[in-house]
Amino acid sequence: MEPARKVFEEMPERNCFVWSSMICGYCKKGDVEEARAIFDRIPVRNLVNWNSIISGYAQNGFCEEALELFAKMQTEGFEPDEVTIASVLSACAQLGLLDAGKEVHHMINRKGIQLNQFVLNALVDMYAKCGDLSNARLIFEGMPQRNNACWNAMISGFSIHGQSKEALEFFGRMEDSEETPDGITFLSVLSACAHGGFVNEGLEIFSKMENYGLAASIKHYGCLVDLLGRAGRLKEAHDLIKGMPMKPNDAVWGALLGACRIHLDMETAERVVEKVGTQDFNMHSGDDSHYVLLSNIYADSDRWEKAERLRMVMGNKGFQKTPGRSSIMLSNSESQFLAITR
To answer: Where are the PPR-type repeats located (predicted)?
Structure first.
């Protein structure tokens, strides 16, 4: 963006596409603050400029800001188009705001906005992420064409909301369709298998990745460790970690330790901690999650002395347990609750 900014500042005149190009560039870089500064400098804005900043906010996870700008855009007399709607629906999906998403859906029908592939995908994704799987499926089944994005939205939605059989059903349908599963598809369906207890199905699906020319990432291996761990097959999970083509990260070890806690397998838990050491648990970053897990395993096994000793180690190292947070919607406003436990 540095050479782009230099050319931009030297231009005697700038049209709407120049302004939007700079906004999009900074958003792709993740610098939404600079993108907003550019947007605020535009002397006369048009819909392209509004879409650029709203889309950039949504893509970078600044969803509240995206919705605020969407409202401001309308108060200034601009009518949303397909690009605006797709970005706003994405923001609603990320925030889990089903009611707001439904209002946008009503707006689409009321204003006669074209239901192109991007808008339909965004609607499916919004309903699926917000848990309204009936509406998500209704829109999905009525789509004239389906790409990877809408298939993944449905499979992920079923997986996230505990409908593992439906996720497997849609994965089978996707395989029979003209669309090819990608890495995101496999992550979603493997997660569904883990939460649904479909161990054999999960192992078979994992083996299919090679057939589609996909290399399993550490996230796919993490799902497989979680799958085996939840089923109590801890030795297989541990052997899988040892045979991984890449170095296991905190999430992978955490999945195994979490399974050790569920099944009260102290032997495997202690062997893991002894083998990898705390340096592989990224403890220098202040992440005490694995210490907490091991301490809880000791406590669940009535080994209170070891549990307390581990908590003392955490205290001496200056680690503090991250407080949990919950939120609920009350009259379209969000209220957060802080839960602090020992």
So the answer is: 15-45, 46-80, 81-115, 147-181, 182-216
- 130 contacts: CB under 8 Å, gap ≥ 6: 92, 93, 96, 97, 98, 101
- Alpha-carbon gap, residue 152 to 260, rounded angstroms: 31
Q: Which CATH number fits domain 1-143: 1.10.357.10, 2.50.20.10, 1.25.40.10, 1.10.3810.10?
A: 1.25.40.10
The angle at the Cα of 21, spanning 10 to 29, to the nearest 5 degrees, equals: 105
Beta bridge mates, 339: 324
pTM comes to 0.80
Which helix H or strand E contains 325, and what residues bound it? strand 324-330
Query: Which residue type is seen at 249?
Result: N
Q: Which of 336, 334, 310 is nearest to 324 (CA)?
A: 336
Question: What pLDDT, in 10s, does the model give residues 129-186?
Answer: 999 999 999 999 999 999 999 999 999 999 999 999 999 999 999 999 989 999 999 9
Spans of all domains in the chain: 1-143
